[in-house]
Amino acid sequence: RDWSSDVCSSDLRYRVSVQETQLPPDPIRAITQDNVQIDIRLAILYRIIDPSKSKYRIENLSAGIKTVIEGTVRSLIGKTDLDGVQTNRRTIVTEIESELNHIADEWGIKLTRVEVTEVEVDQSTREAMQIQLNAERKRRGQVTSAEGEKQAAQLKADADLYTAQKQAEAKKILADAEAYAVKVVSEAIEIGRAHV
Question: Average of pLDDT values for 27-47?
Answer without folding.
Answer: 90
